[in-house]
Amino acid sequence: RELENDSSSEIILDILKQTCLHPLCCKHPPSVRYRRLFLSQLIKRHEASESEPLDELYDALGEVLGVEEGTECYKNYLLPCGEAVSLSESTAVISEGTTGLVTWEAALYLAEWALENTHVFTGRTVLELGSGVGLTGIAVCRSCSPSRYVFSDCHLSVLNRLRDNVQLNGLDNQNSPRVRVSVKHLDWDEVTEKHLREIGATTVIAADVVYDPDIIGCLVKLLSKILRCSANGSPPEVYISSTIRNPDTYNCFKHQLGQY
């Protein structure tokens, strides 16, 4: 029984070291609320094993209980290559008049798909629409070897946070000579075919941009412009990752695509 308890304590302590006490988490801490919930659950699991109390667990919880939640936090993601992506995000789903300051589920799926299909991006000029805080694009730049990557959004606060995250992950052009990275303001209504040709994208991606019926017409018109702006005689490949919250909205998107 004592051996089982010792083993349980070692496992819990290892989990703690791999998460809340990990150097990456200490440098770029997740939200206070998340850490409190995580540590509380870890303590419950440890207490259920009837093992001796772990001072490290209660010290970690005590430390986070004394911290006030701010308006910003970090989320960290480990890439298959062993490197990490760290993102500064808002602790609120809606802040500064936008939902673009947090990572949404479709961006996670698109990033995972990109890591499994690196050939779609290798050596390409990639344009990302609605980049948000930058998870997908940073993952692509770090793991898929594009020649050029253009992050884009239209909300000022999102663009500022996006630039900060690009720099945080070492993707400014001085630190990342293998891929040319830029962050651009791109208004879907106002962007011209001339501007799109200057970008010269051979691959276009977007995540979670099909969520509001009011912007679907604008998005479809933009995609039509993009497909007319061929690079090297061929139209760019376009990949869109969506979370289907409302089937009617998604069907509206597919219907309008079929009209072009």
Explain this structure to me?
It holds the Pfam family FAM86. The structure is a single chain. This protein has 260 residues and is of the alpha/beta class. 46% of the residues lie in helices and 16% in strands. The termini are far apart.
Quick overview:
By secondary structure, this protein is of the alpha/beta class.
Topology, please?
Elements: H1 2-18, H2 23-27, H3 32-48, H4 55-65, E1 72-78, E2 84-90, H5 105-116, E3 125-129, H6 135-143, E4 148-153, H7 156-168, E5 180-185, H8 193-199, E6 203-207, H9 213-228, E7 237-241, H10 247-258
Parallel strand pairs: 3-4, 3-6, 4-5, 6-7
Antiparallel strand pairs: 1-2
Helix pairs in contact: 1-3, 3-4, 5-6, 9-10
